[in-house]
Amino acid sequence: MYRILNLLIFSHQNIVKVLFVLINTFICQTATASENNSADINTPWQLWRNKDEVKIEYRPVRQDQFIEIKASTTIESSLSGFLLFIEDANNIPNWLANASSSQFLKKISATENIFRTEFKGFWPIQTRDIIIHSKYRQNEDFSVDIFTLDAGDFQKPYANIIRVELISGHWLIKPIYNAIPRVHVAYTFVVDAKGNIPLWLNKKLALKGIWETMQNIKQQLPKSAWQTKKHIAIKEPTYG
């Protein structure tokens, strides 16, 4: 009986030691992961271009494997006009740089959609596509967050087309309270273009592409027919 008791005590002590080691290991791994994430967040933005009220910045993320890009500008538009404009799948190739086609795959609700966009290929870049799941959220100050998530598994990839992965993406649309409706637009994203594109080339193409995209939106959005429409899920502030 005494031996059995000692054995149980010894086993219990060993279990406690093992649990202690596992907990410490978990804490260390979590701390390391947090440090790596915060290192990306704390990395300063580098200005690439600031011209014609369009500002493009970038910074390396994930130990320099990718770059995060932030594009911002101010546009003459209502909130509804902006959201309906970017929801218009048929019109996306007119403003999104290098896009050849776009289609809605699923309309989940008035604030949630899944759509696919295909991008033109050119040597040495192969044709690519991306599937995005977007969600809207309007805040108390009337600003709108658009959270974009990768939905590449929603549909099987096409033959000879490389499926791009959206690592992260977020739009913040803030109304400006003037006599004429205006919005401040900020878009931050990280994309894995896949296909072993060198980082220097991917960086060049991505920065040039987002610059062209923002310029197109600034030119086309104020004249869009969507400016006269009201988005069913969005409240407009009082301007003037």
What would you say this structure looks like, in words?
There is one protein chain. By secondary structure, the protein is α+β, with helices and mostly antiparallel strands. 32% of the residues lie in helices and 36% in strands. It contains 4 helices and 10 strands. Strands 1, 2, 3, 4, 5, 6, 7, 8, 9 and 10 form a 10-stranded mixed β-sheet that branches. Strand 4 and strand 5 (112-119) form a beta hairpin. The longest helix is centred in the first third of the chain and has 41 residues, at 2-42. The chain is globular. The model is unreliable at 1-5 and 7-39 (pLDDT under 50).
Short overview:
The protein has 240 residues and is α+β, with helices and mostly antiparallel strands. The protein contains four helices and ten strands, in the order αβββααβββββββα.
Question: How are the SSEs placed, and which strands pair?
Answer:
Layout: H1 2-42, E1 46-51, E2 54-61, E3 66-76, H2 79-87, H3 92-95, E4 99-109, E5 112-119, E6 128-138, E7 144-150, E8 162-163, E9 165-176, E10 182-192, H4 199-220
Parallel strand pairs: 6-8
Antiparallel strand pairs: 1-2, 2-3, 3-10, 4-5, 5-6, 6-7, 7-9, 9-10
Class computed from helices, strands and strand pairing: alpha+beta
For the record, give the distance between the C-alpha atoms at the N and C termini, rounded to a whole number: 88 Å
Q: What is the ordering of alpha helices and beta strands?
A: HEEEHHEEEEEEEH
| Strands, total number | 10
| Rg from alpha-carbon coordinates | 24 Å
Low-confidence stretches: 1-5, 7-39
Mean pLDDT: 85
